Every structure is written in structure tokens, then in C-alpha cells.
């Protein structure tokens, strides 16, 4: 299974370590195409914005499922979710805190889960993949 993990990059790197842990857990279920999102010192300087877009769209197209952390508001994550929805990909969004965007939590075409801890999100991810059977 090819997994596209989406999380805020330019919107803030405060969750990079958490992303790294989530990505490590996702590897139990398949190949994570966007493993670089968990890197603490993510370097985008050697790629143009067009190259980043095209590379990410190729990975999104190749993926079997999209897992997104939508805790930190991000235009890029929202764009990826929207494009994934157009492609009819299964999408699962996870967030910490009281609320996430109504455009995410209100969409009935994918599932949204609230979590507070790393262990909790791992359990939710396990449930997602178990239900996909």
C-alpha cells in the first residue's frame, strides 16, 4: 500500500517530531511516499515551487490512501486533501485541539478524527487500516 502523509510544512514545523513518529507508525501498513515531512530540518531550497508541486502531485496520484494531520492550518494540506477528494482517494484527517476547519470536519466524503496523544493517534490509525482490511 502506498500512503500519502500530509502535514504542515511552511505553515509551521512545530509538529515535525510528531509527524516523524506518525510516519514511522504508518510504515507498518505500507510505503510512505512523503516520509520527508517528518524531517526536523526539511530542506526545500534545492527545489522550485513548481518542482515541489509536481513531485507532490505525482505522489498523491500514486497513493492508495491519504493520511493528513490537519492540526496546524496549512493551505498546502487543504489543497492536497481537495485534490485527493477529486481523485476519489480514501482520506483520513487527524487533529488535536478543540476544532478543525468546518471545511474538513464537515465534509462527509472522508473521515476526521480528534486525538490528543501520539498513542491515541496510533490507535486511530490502526483502526483505519484494520477497517480497510
UniProtKB/TrEMBL annotation:
Residues binding substrate, per UniProt: 19, 80, 101-103
Molecular functions per Gene Ontology: 5-hydroxymethyl-dUMP N-hydrolase activity; transferase activity
Catalytic reactions of this protein: a pyrimidine 2'-deoxyribonucleoside 5'-phosphate + H2O = a pyrimidine nucleobase + 2-deoxy-D-ribose 5-phosphate; a purine 2'-deoxyribonucleoside 5'-phosphate + H2O = a purine nucleobase + 2-deoxy-D-ribose 5-phosphate; 5-hydroxymethyl-dUMP + H2O = 5-hydroxymethyluracil + 2-deoxy-D-ribose 5-phosphate
EC number from the UniProt entry: 3.2.2.-
Keywords for the protein's UniProt record, in alphabetical order: Glycosidase, Hydrolase, Nucleotide metabolism
This protein's record includes keyword Hydrolase: yes
Domain of life: Bacteria
InterPro entries: 2'-dNMP_N-hydrolase, DNPH1, Nucleoside_deoxyribTrfase
A biological process term (GO) from this entry: nucleotide metabolic process
Complex and partners: Monomer and homodimer.
Primary role: Catalyzes the cleavage of the N-glycosidic bond of deoxyribonucleoside 5'-monophosphates to yield deoxyribose 5-phosphate and a purine or pyrimidine base.
HAMAP family with a match to the protein in the record: Nuc_phosphate_hydrolase
Assigned protein family: Belongs to the 2'-deoxynucleoside 5'-phosphate N-hydrolase 1 family.
Name the record gives this protein: Putative 2'-deoxynucleoside 5'-phosphate N-hydrolase 1
Taxonomy of the source species: Bacteria, Pseudomonadati, Bacteroidota, Cytophagia, Cytophagales
